[in-house]
Structure formats: C-alpha cells, structure tokens
Design goal:
Layout: E1 14-17, H1 23-34, E2 38-43, H2 47-59, E3 64-68, H3 74-88, E4 93-96, H4 111-135, E5 141-145, H5 159-179, E6 185-191, H6 206-211, H7 221-233, E7 241-244
Helix pairs in contact: 1-2, 1-7, 3-4, 4-5
C-alpha cells in the first residue's frame, strides 16, 4: 500500500480551453486548475469574463492566461495553440469547447450561417487539434465538446448544429487512430441540457428539454467539467464518446 504524496493528477501540465470565458469552458478551466494544471482560455467578446476565469485559476495557485482568438479565423484557431505554448511553456491538454449554435428551419438557414457554423464548430476544431498534435508530448490529451444532438435529435430545427457536431465524432475517432502511436488520446464529451447563460434551466424551452431526460433535470457545467478533467487524466481511453446528458439519449 502506497501513501498519498500530495501530488495532483495534472501537476506540471498545461491546458488550453477554447471558449473558456464562461459556461462549460470556464468551469472546465477552473477544474483543470484544481487538478494541478496551468490553463489558458480563449475568448472573442467576453474579455471580462475571461479575466474572471483567469483569476479563478490563479486563486488556486496555477498560472492562467486569457487569449483573444476567433475560432472562425483559420490562423487564430491554430494560433491559440502556439500562443498557449509560448505563454505557459508547452501544451498537454486541449479542450475544444468553443462552438456556435444556429437553430432554425432548414429552409431558413443561409449560406453565410452554414459557413460560420462549420468554420467554428468543425474547421476551427480540426485546426486547433492539428496544431496541438504537433506540439504535444506523449501523454497528450485532446478532448472535444460535442452535443447530445449527435445521438438523438428530438425535434426540427437542429440540422446545421447537429451536422457540425456530428463531424466531430468522426474527427475524434480518426485522431485516436492517427495519434495513438505517439501516445496522444482523443475523446469527445456530449453534454445534454446544461444550465448556462445561453440555455438557462428556467428558460422558455427548459421544460421540454427536462422532459427528454431520464433524470428529469438540467445538468450543471461542473458535471460536464468533471468528465473532461477525468479524461485529461485517463491514459487508456481514446476514440470514445461520453454522454453527460441525464439520460437524454437513453
């Protein structure tokens, strides 16, 4: 029997959380810091919220940095990885959290909306993952935030969003195969209805979402973050999908 030496599971690791200024991203950044990691977060418009996330990371005795990076821009999506490595001395964990949701009837979706959603939700994630894979040492982790709508689309209006997030399932499985030989894992987490500013548990569409879950409630950002941080420390899990959806897909 060995005694606990006080070492945290992610001591000495550097993590990047894209879209980490609020919601699931901010909760993940804080939980990564609590596990011992130094953390960078990206933001586009939420400068003050990103600063709050960094202060929360710093309050735990870890280094934090906020980087403005627009994932719809190909250079900035990949550049956030390089800037994180420069600021914090490397990169061990990438959390592809940034995403945009455009919902509406199929006929109403414009080409510009299609291009924007695919640029952020698919191309930006691909380019960040590509840049991270080139930087990460053995033991690197790529964790992507998907959606429960990749497994069950409960009603109309979700074609564009569900398509973009479903692409990330294929990306994750392919990354796992390609990067397994160098010891880098890739996994995807599918949140269900989660209480955030964009989808509050007391919002106008909440009752219908709750009814679709087995647990009869919204999830919390901390519950999603807990799964992400678990995967950041897991060494024999790759190419897998994990639902944090209260039974939405059951």
């Amino acid at each position: 029997m060995t005694s606990y030496d006080g070492t945290l599971p992610l001591d000495g690791k550097v993590a990047l959380v894209t879209g980490g200024s609020r919601g699931i991203g901010a909760a993940t950044a804080v939980r990564l810091a609590r596990a011992g990691a130094d953390v960078a977060v990206t933001y586009v418009n939420g400068k003050e919220a990103a600063a709050d996330a960094v202060r929360a990371v710093s309050s735990l005795g870890r280094r934090g940095v906020a980087l403005r990076a627009d994932s719809s821009d190909a250079g900035e999506a990949a550049g956030a990885v390089e800037r994180t490595a420069e600021a914090l001395g490397g990169l061990d964990v990438l959390v592809n959290n940034v995403g945009v949701g455009v919902l509406g009837p199929l006929a109403s979706l414009s080409p510009d909306e299609v291009d924007r959603v695919l640029a952020v939700n698919v191309r930006g994630v691909f380019l960040a993952s590509q840049a991270a894979a080139a930087r990460m040492p053995e033991g690197g982790r790529i964790i992507t935030i998907g959606t429960c709508m990749t497994q069950r689309v409960p009603g109309p209006g979700g074609t564009l969003y569900a398509m973009s997030k479903s692409a990330l399932v294929g990306l994750t499985k392919a990354l796992a195969r390609e990067l397994g030989s160098v010891g880098i894992t890739a996994n995807i987490v599918h949140p269900g209805p989660i209480d955030t500013d964009m989808n509050p548990a007391d919002g106008p569409y909440a009752a219908g979402q709750v009814a679709m879950t087995a647990l009869g409630r919204f999830g919390t950002v901390e519950e999603v973050a807990a799964m992400v941080v678990h995967l950041a420390g897991a060494s024999y899990v790759t190419g897998a999908e994990f639902s944090v959806d209260g039974g939405h897909a059951a």
